[in-house]
């Protein structure tokens, strides 16, 4: 492979792909760029390496991780390695969206990927679209030095547990420092984590909304997508997803979600006030036109459309947090389906 060149001028030499693959094969951790967010990756079949992910993140070890697989043969090599059985609708979703930002929870083959799966009898698989992630996965599947074949990289988002997910290599560095090998694949295009569909319950169940919408999933597989609530109403055992923890994606500042009217009223109350040290203490992230009449407030505009809003969301939350504000006031996104992913992350950040 020739050097990877990204839009922002970042260049990645092929040796760095090989170096990262060596680290993973040796049981180490790496910062992995994907099209959604950066992952903290390790060999999914090595329980010691997977244990390092949980320790580094401070994540409870019974929380299952997503396993990333190579795209040659449409991801089927990885699927055959980890999965006992693939329902027809899951197969249709793979054909429609892989490689891409969709994770499928599938029945796990006994004896493989147990630590990555947090001991569950299912496994979350995703075939990422980012060329650097794919290059590392390909290098691991086809070791040049006759080394061991690695079938998948277990990778949760590369942030400390409960914090904002990283969408640039610099974000990952700020979480884990110089000891972690990070491949810089430029800023993540999608910006929020993959859509997760549980395929182990007879009907597809939406565990986490993302940039691939519920409608797109239903259209691709011709099945109705159940929500977690609908599944619970059918009295089945609740699915587990760390994204279901109420507080998640949280910056240090307190995040409040309000509609435009409530925001304007709150801003009006501050009218004319000045911060004692002349620095803003509130960051405002809004889409509607609002009047700000106090230097207490630093205003930022949210993109009008869901995709660019998702792309910059985590970066913006980090940027506003870094300004040292105490509060982040966010205008609640529209109630329409294409905003489901962004609304979900903001609701958790505010919980
Ligand atoms: O976009 C993404 O999915 C990113 C990038 C790095 O690929 N990864 C990511 O991983 O968000 P993580 O570990 O932060 O989120 C994994 C989610 C959790 O909510 C977890 O509970 C769920 O996937 N999950 C994974 N395996 C599962 C399983 N076997 N059963 C139920 N949920 C599972
Ligand atoms: Mg995460």
TrEMBL record:
Principal EC category: transferase
UniProt-listed Enzyme Commission number(s): 2.7.7.87
UniProt xrefs under InterPro entries: DHBP_synth_RibB-like_a/b_dom, Sua5-like_dom, Sua5/YwlC_C, Sua5_C, T(6)A37_SUA5, TC-AMP_synthase_SUA5
Predominant subcellular localization, coarse grouping: cytoplasm
Reactions mediated catalytically: L-threonine + hydrogencarbonate + ATP = L-threonylcarbamoyladenylate + diphosphate + H2O
Keywords, in A-Z order: ATP-binding, Cytoplasm, Nucleotide-binding, Nucleotidyltransferase, Transferase, tRNA processing
Location in or out of the cell: Cytoplasm
KW Nucleotidyltransferase (keyword) present: yes
Keyword Transferase in annotation: yes
One term of GO molecular function: L-threonylcarbamoyladenylate synthase
Membership in a protein family: Belongs to the SUA5 family.
Name of the protein this chain belongs to: Threonylcarbamoyl-AMP synthase
Organism name: Rhodoferax mekongensis
């Amino acid at each position: 492979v020739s050097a990877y060149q990204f839009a922002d001028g970042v260049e990645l030499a092929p040796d760095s792909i090989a170096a990262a693959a060596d680290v993973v094969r040796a049981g180490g951790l790496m910062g992995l760029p994907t099209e959604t967010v950066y992952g903290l990756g390790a060999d999914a079949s090595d329980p010691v390496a997977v244990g390092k992910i949980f320790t580094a993140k401070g994540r409870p070890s019974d929380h299952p991780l997503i396993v990333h697989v190579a795209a040659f043969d449409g991801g089927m090599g990885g699927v055959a390695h980890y999965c006992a059985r693939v329902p027809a609708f899951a197969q249709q979703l793979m054909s429609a969206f892989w490689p891409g930002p969709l994770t499928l929870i599938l029945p796990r083959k006994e004896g493989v990927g147990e630590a990555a799966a947090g001991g569950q009898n299912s496994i979350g698989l995703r075939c990422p679209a980012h060329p650097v992630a794919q290059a590392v996965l390909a290098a691991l599947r086809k070791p040049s030095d006759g080394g061991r074949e690695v079938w998948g990289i277990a990778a949760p988002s590369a942030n400390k547990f409960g914090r904002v997910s990283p969408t640039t290599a610099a974000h990952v560095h700020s979480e884990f420092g110089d000891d972690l090998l990070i491949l810089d694949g430029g800023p993540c295009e999608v910006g929020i984590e993959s859509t997760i569909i549980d395929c182990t319950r007879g009907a597809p169940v939406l565990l986490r909304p993302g940039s691939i919408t519920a409608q797109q999933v239903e259209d691709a597989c011709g099945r109705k997508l159940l929500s977690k609530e609908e599944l619970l109403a059918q009295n089945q055992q609740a699915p587990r997803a760390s994204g279901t923890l109420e507080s998640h994606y949280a910056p240090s500042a307190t995040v409040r979600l309000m509609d435009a009217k409530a925001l304007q009223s709150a801003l009006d109350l501050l009218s004319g006030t000045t911060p004692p040290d002349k620095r803003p203490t509130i960051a405002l992230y809004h889409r509607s036109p609002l009047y700000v009449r106090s230097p207490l407030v630093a205003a930022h505009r949210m993109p009008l459309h869901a995709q660019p809003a998702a792309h910059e969301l985590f970066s913006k939350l980090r940027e506003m947090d870094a300004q040292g504000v105490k509060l982040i006031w966010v205008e609640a996104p529209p109630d329409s389906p294409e905003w489901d992913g962004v609304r979900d992350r903001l609701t958790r950040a505010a919980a």
